Amino acid sequence: SLSPRIGELKSLVSLNLSGNTIDQLPSDIAKLTNLTHLWLNNNYLEELPVDIGELAALKQFEVSGNKLRALPSSITNLENMIVLDADDNQIVSLPDEFGQLPRLEQLSVQRNPLTDATIAPVTSAERVRILNVHGTKLTDVGLEKLKQQLPDCEIREEEIRKGFFGGSFAF
Asked: Fewer CB in a 10 Å sphere around the end CB: N or C, the chain?
């Protein structure tokens, strides 16, 4: 478990808590208002605190390999977020307001049980340029609709693996 005192590190800019068997985040994490990069990959998180939306400076947010069933609607307050990586969770839907993320350019939701209907909120995220959907429950019709609604977006249906230095490449 992560200490609530984490909120006292107010000048923290990057925080990597990946692979630490964390099953819950204290709401005080929202006090890290200078945080621009947050990695929570490969933990046991089943939910994110509602206050996560208060991390206004956050640009890169990675929560892959957890047990998340949803992203809190407050995530749509992260107006500076450019990259969201939520692969390998159990996310069944995205918040309706998801398209309101004005700077989101890369979204990866591989191997989540998202369907044509539950991924729909992403279609109003106009700046998304890369969307990884391998291993979701999208149909061919749903993929075609995404491609039509996001014409400037590279929609990746093949598996994307993360490289050693954070770069992505396809297999």
From this structure: C
